[in-house]
Each structure stands twice: as C-alpha cells, then as structure tokens.
Automatic annotation (TrEMBL), chain A:
Keyword line: Cell membrane, Membrane, Transmembrane, Transmembrane helix, Transport
Topological category with respect to the lipid bilayer: Multi-pass membrane protein
Family: Belongs to the binding-protein-dependent transport system permease family.
One cellular component (GO) term of this entry: plasma membrane
GO terms, molecular function: ABC-type phosphonate transporter activity
Transmembrane parts of this sequence: 62-84, 118-137, 222-248
Stated name of the protein: Phosphonate transport system permease protein
Domain ABC transmembrane type-1 stretches: 62-245
Major localization class: membrane
PROSITE patterns recorded: ABC_TM1
Subcellular localization, as worded in the UniProt entry: Cell membrane
From TrEMBL, chain B:
Organism: Alteribacillus persepolensis
Protein known as: Phosphonate transport system ATP-binding protein
Domain ABC transporter: 2-247
Coiled coil: none
Keyword Transport among record annotations: yes
GO cellular component entries: membrane
Gene3D superfamilies in the record: P-loop containing nucleotide triphosphate hydrolases
Gene Ontology molecular-function annotations: ABC-type phosphonate transporter activity; ATP binding; ATP hydrolysis activity
Listed Pfam families: ABC_tran
Key words of the record: ATP-binding, Cell membrane, Membrane, Nucleotide-binding, Phosphonate transport, Translocase, Transport
NCBIfam families per record: ABC_phnC (TIGR02315)
C-alpha cells in the first residue's frame, strides 16, 4: 500500500519524460558541469580586483536605473489599481466589461518589456524614457492581474455591509475591499519594483540608459573590473529596495 | 410599515423556494424576532426588506409604496435609512472604530466626499456620541481587528445607528457570541429600538432571547410562516413545529 494514488505515479512518469525531453532540447549535459571551474578562474583572473575608482561615475547611472524602475512601476500601479477593479469578477459589474479588461491586461502582460523597449527605442529615441514606457506597460498587465485576483479573493462581507448602508457600488467596493488587500498590493508592488530594477538593466543593453547600458558597454570592451563594481552596485540597490519594501509593509500592516 | 404580500423568492438553479407565499405586516415600533432552523429563509426575508435580495413573485410595500417599482437610486436611499447588522459583523478591517462608524453615512455622502473620507465636525461628534451610547467611547481610535466579538458587534450597531435608520435589521447578530455577550447585545438593541422608535426585525436562534426581548415572534420553516404571534403565545409544541426536524435529529 502506498500513500500516493496511482494517478500520482502517472504524473511523476510524465514529469520525468518532460524533464528528459527538455534536457535534450537544451543540450543539458551533466558532464559539462566540470567546465564550471573555468568560471571561477575567469572571474578571479579578469574581474578582480574591482575598479573602485569608477564608483563616482556610476552614481548618476544607478540613480537613472532607480528612477526608471520606480517611475515605470509606480505609474503602472496608479493605472492598474482602478483597472483591476474593472477586471475582477466581483466588482466589474458587467460580464462583457470584465472579459474585455481581463483580455486587455493579458495582452499587456504577454508582451515582454524587451519587446516594448525595442519598439520604443526606435519610436522615442535612445535614453531612459523608452525604458520607463516599456516597464510601465508590462507592469500594468502584471499588477492589474495580481490585484484583480486579490480583489476576487477579498471577504465579501464588508461589501454587503456597504451595500446595506446605501453606498454607491464603486465607493462601496473601494472602501470594503481596498483596506483588506492593501498590504498585499504593496507587497506585489515592491516585488515588481525589484524586478523592474533588473529589467531596466536589460533595457540598458538596448539603449535604455542607466547602469545597464554602462555594464553592457564595459562588458563588450572587456573592462571586467568595472563590471564587478557595477554588478555589486546593482545587488546593493536591489537589497535596499527589498529592505525598504519590507519596512513599508511592516508599517502598513 | 413594511408589508409582505404573497412574497416568494427562488435562488438561481434552485427548485425549492427560499421564501414561499409570505404574507406579513411589520408595524412601526415592533421588535420582531424571526425564529427558524438554518435554511428556513430567515436571512432571505431580512434581505428582501432592504432590497438586497430581489423577490421572484409578490410585493413588498414600504409605507404603502411597492419596493419593486423603485429605481435603484430609490432603493439605495431606502437602504441608507435601514440599519443592518450581521452575524460576522462585516466591519472594514484596518480601519478604526470611528472610521467604520462613519461609513454608515456613505448612503448620504457625495461619492467624492466619501472617497476622500471628508466628514464634518458635527458628523464626527455624532459618531463619538453614538460610540458612547454603545459603550465604546474610549475605543474610537482603535483598529477593529483588535476588538472582541461583542465589541465588534457594538461597532456594527453604531454604524447602523449612524444612518439614523427607521428600520433596524439583524441577520443572526448574536450567533457568533457567547451567551452573556449575546444578552448584552440584545439589551443594547432593545435600548436603541425604544430610544429611536424603530421597527426592528432580527433573526435569531436563541429562543430564550427572542422570548425575553421581542414584542412579536415569527417562526419560519421551509420558507413558510409557521408561527406569528406574541412571545407568550409560543408554546413548546409551536417551537417543535418550527424546529421539528432539527429537534428530532
């Protein structure tokens, strides 16, 4: 006798087959693991010692990266909040309106930031503005979906109470749901902010400015000791944003 | 005066009516307790009074006017004059006691003023005075999550009082509370009822509470009125008639 049902064994076999197929498709070779020791010598020989003297020149690019990530995600949150009420089953009011908004959010979410970035760099020119727009549009889709799911999972009791005092539907929904979901909205926001910092690096590779562009240029010109400083600075920024998010969330709860 | 005329309610995808051919009249000043087992239609009946639940057939008249003919705005205006309290309180978490009480004014406020949380000094003073009345004068600033069940229900009563209601509805308001707290909440409801000359209709499972506080008892079973009379007219056999299947179980 086993704790697991027969169906679980079947799923395990299917999962094993899919893993094996994926390894073939990605040329995943266990024997290649021994090559990783080269990575250590590569980093040790080329990336160290770090060129700390370039630190002052990185202040402005890292602030640009921070601004791109913040502005893109913050404006996305402002747009996604009302949109998510229109994309939640329990607050949309009209089924057709609900499906339309869901579809709209899915479309925005399905286009990666890099694709938006490539389009906007051509349309708007090089610099951080196209990166802001790329992060903004993608994050409306992501935050809109996440917040609409929080709205759908909110306790319906306060909504009924607001209906029973004669409140209008929109105000009633807003007041009964937003206080319930607010800490999780902030949690999602700060996570997306953190992701946006990493994304803005990639967007820097295609001309979106910030420290990403600097990192890309230094990597291409084999200036690896500068790359070390840039990577460490990015890691520091991500950690600061994470800590700040945790602090804000704690204050709000 | 609230008058039910042959009211029937079916829920979607249900062949059994939640309410079946109800004929009742509630006069101004009555304190009515509705008894009945779970699924008897008590909550449905309460919700038809303030138009949260539409009726399938029949009519409900409020002071002689057919509720069915009212526009959605008129129904909202009627709800703003109908205080309602719930078993699970339905308070808004993360807001303070006072803020929860002030939401009772949302039926009267302009949406933008409600959104911005703009309340006049007199409205805030009124909220504080109601909180004193329900025994929570010292807790206005406290967040509602940190209150006990009885205190939460007092906030629910205060929110309903903030509406200056003509009618007070209670959907099992003491079902989640211990007997002592339930007794004190009922005493508060009776006090509020007398002071404000309300029409009060409350669903309750506790027969002793209904007998001590109600001026009239309505017994429901399978969506039908089984008993309608004064508390002292409700005999043991009458109770068994209402709760028959439950008692046998």
């Amino acid at each position: 006798m086993s704790w697991f049902r027969k169906r679980v064994w079947l799923y395990a076999v299917l999962l094993g087959l899919f893993t094996w197929w994926s390894m073939g498709k990605t040329e995943f070779e266990v024997s290649s693991f021994q090559e990783f020791s080269n990575a250590y010598s590569f980093i040790h020989d080329r990336f160290l010692p770090a060129s700390w003297e370039i630190l002052p020149t990185l202040i402005d690019p890292i602030l640009v990266t921070l601004a791109v990530a913040f502005l893109g995600t913050f404006i996305a949150l402002l747009i996604a909040l009302p949109l998510s009420f229109a994309a939640a089953k329990n607050t949309a009011g009209n089924r057709l309106f609900y499906y339309f908004n869901r579809f709209f959010l899915s479309v925005l979410r399905s286009v990666p930031e890099i694709v938006f970035g490539l389009i906007f760099v051509v349309v708007l020119g090089l610099g951080p503005f196209p990166a802001v727009m790329a992060i903004l549009l993608h994050n409306i889709g992501v935050l809109g979906k996440l917040i609409s799911e929080l709205i759908e999972a909110a306790d319906a009791g306060p909504q009924e109470a607001m209906q029973s005092v004669g409140a209008g539907r929109r105000i009633g929904n807003l007041f009964s749901i937003l206080p319930q979901i607010w800490p999780n909205v902030l949690s999602h926001y700060f996570y997306r902010f953190e992701v946006a910092i990493r994304t803005s690096l990639i967007l820097g590779f295609i001309g979106g400015g910030g420290i990403g562009q600097k990192l890309f240029n230094d990597f291409n010109s084999f200036n690896y000791t500068a790359v070390t400083v840039e990577v460490l600075l990015i890691m520091l920024l991500v950690i600061i944003v994470d800590l700040f998010g945790a602090f804000v969330r704690k204050r709000v709860i | 005066m609230i008058e039910f005329q042959d009211v029937t309610v079916y829920y979607p995808k249900s062949n059994e009516p939640a309410l079946s051919h109800i004929n009742l009249t509630f006069q101004q000043g009555e304190f009515v307790c509705v008894l009945g087992p779970s699924g008897a239609g008590k909550s449905t009946m309460i919700r038809t009074v303030n138009a949260l639940q539409p009726v399938t057939a029949g009519n409900i008249f409020i002071d002689g006017q057919d509720l069915d003919n009212w526009t959605s705005l008129e129904k909202r205006q009627w709800r703003s004059r109908t205080g309602m309290i719930f078993q699970h309180f339905h308070l808004i978490p993360r807001l303070s006691v006072e803020q929860n009480v002030l939401t009772g004014l949302f039926g009267y406020k302009h949406p933008m003023a409600a959104f911005a949380g703009v309340f006049s000094q007199s409205e805030k003073k009124k909220a504080r005075s109601i909180l004193q009345q329900v025994g929570l004068g010292e807790m206005a600033e406290r967040r509602v999550e940190w209150l006990s069940g009885g205190q939460k229900q007092r906030v629910g009563v205060a929110r309903a009082l903030m509406q200056e209601p003509d009618v007070f509805l209670g959907d099992e308001p003491v079902a989640s509370l211990d007997p002592g707290t339930a007794q004190s909440i009922f005493a508060l409801l009776k006090d509020v009822h007398v002071r404000n000359d309300l029409t009060t209709i409350i669903n309750v499972h506790d027969v002793a509470l209904a007998r001590s506080f109600a001026t009239r008892i309505v017994g429901l079973s399978h969506g039908k009125v089984i008993f309608d009379g004064k508390p002292d007219e409700l005999t043991e056999s009458g109770l068994e008639h209402i709760y028959g299947t439950v008692l046998q179980a």
